[in-house]
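Interim report, section 4.2 (structural modelling).
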Amino acid sequence: MGSEYTPTILQGQQTSDDEILAKTPLDTKALGGDSSVIIMELLQRFKVRDVMKRQIISIARSATLREAQRLMRENRISGLPVCEEGRLYGIVSVNDIINGLDRGWMSDACEKHMATNLVVLEAGMPLAFALRYFNNYTYGRFPVLDSNRKLVGIVSQRDVMRALLYELSVEIRKLERKTSNNTQERAAGESYFRREWAVVRNDLSRAGHAANDIKSILRERKVDRTVSRRVAVAAYELEINICIHSHGGVLVLLISDETVTITAKDRGPGIPDIEWACRDGTSTANDWIRSMGFGAGMGLSNSKRVADKFDIQSEVGKFTKVTCTFNLKKQQEGAGS
Amino acid sequence: MTADEICAKVDGVLAVPVEDAAASGVYVGDLLSDVMGHAGEDCALVTIQNHLNTIAVCTLVGCSVLVICHNRPIPPDMAEGAAREGVAIVTTPLSQYAAALALSSLPPAEH
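Predicted structure of the assembly:
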C-alpha cells in the first residue's frame, strides 16, 4: 500500500510457431559459429516453460499471514503465490511477513496484505525476455502464466542459470568438435566493403545494433547524410523483421563506389503471400511485440519506400531474402525522396 | 530548446541528463516504425515506449531528447543506453497529447 510500484503485466501469445522453433536444432553454421551468438540463440530457443518450476507451493486468499509464514519457512521460500484454482491473486513476500509481525497483522487474511501489482512472465516467452526482467526488476523470481492466464510455474534466476549452463556445456562440446575443420573464408573483390551481422530471433534487446553500426560505418565513409538515414531506416526495419518474424538470420552491408546494399536473409518460416506482406499495415506479429511498438506491418513497406531498388524473395518453410539498394551517385544530383 | 527547458515545459523530471541535448522540433509517436520513417532530425520524441529499442530508434533518426509520458518508469538498461548514446530522457506525468501541447512553441519535426 502506498508504494509507487507501477504494475507491469506482460501479455503474450503462444503460437504454434514457438512450438516448432523449440524443436528446431541450432544452426551455428548459418550464424557464423560465433559463441556469443550461440548463447543468444539459446536464450531465444529456450522458453520460460522449459526452465520454470512446475510444482507451485501456494496459499489461498483467506489463509492467514501466519500460515503463509509457516509454509515459507517449511519450504525455504521467500515468496508465496496467493492462488486459487490456477488463478493468481497476489504474492506474499518476506517483507509482508516482517510487516505483519511488526504491526500485529499475522492473523489477518493474506489477501489483505499481499502484493497485487505483479510482474509476471508468460510460459512461451524466450529466456532472453526473462533475463531482461530479472535485470530490470529486483525480484528474485517471477510467477509464470500460460496463455489462459493460469498460474503454471515459478521461475527464479537460479532456474535460468542452471538450464543455461547445462545447454552451454552441450553446445561447447559440439563447437569443439567443429573447430578442427573450420576454415576461414574471405570474400573476394577488394573494391567492396562488406560486413555481416547475425540477428537472433526475438532478441529485441539487441535489435538496432546492426543498423546503428551501419549508420556509423556510412558516417565514417562520408556517405551523404540523407542516404545514410535511408539506409539506416531500411537496415533497422529489416533487422527488426528478422528478429520478430523469422527463426534468425543475417544482415549484410555491401558498399561499392556506386551503391550501398543491405541484404537481410533469414532461415524461415518464409512468407506465403509477399504482396500482402509488403502492404502497409499488414502484420503477423503477436501482442507483446506490438506492445513494444513493433509489428505494425510497416517494416517492408518502409524499407521499400526508402530504397532505390527493392527485391524480395521467399520460400515457405525455408527462407526470406530482402535486398535494398541505394544509389550513391543519384543522390548528389538531388534525387531520392 | 534545451532538454532542461523541455523538462520544465512538460512539468517533468530529467531522468537521464545529457549535456547540450536539445531539440528544434517535436515528433509524437508510439509506433517505432512510424517514428523511424517520419521523425525529423533534432526532434524531441514524445512517446510511451519506455524500453531500450526506443533509444536505438532515437540514435538512428538523430533525436537527442526523449519525453516519456504518463511517468512510465525508465528501466536501467534503457537509462544506460540513453546515457551512452547521448539521448536525454525526460519523464512527464502528461499524456502524449498534453505533452505535445506543452511543447507547441516548437514546430513539427517531420522527415
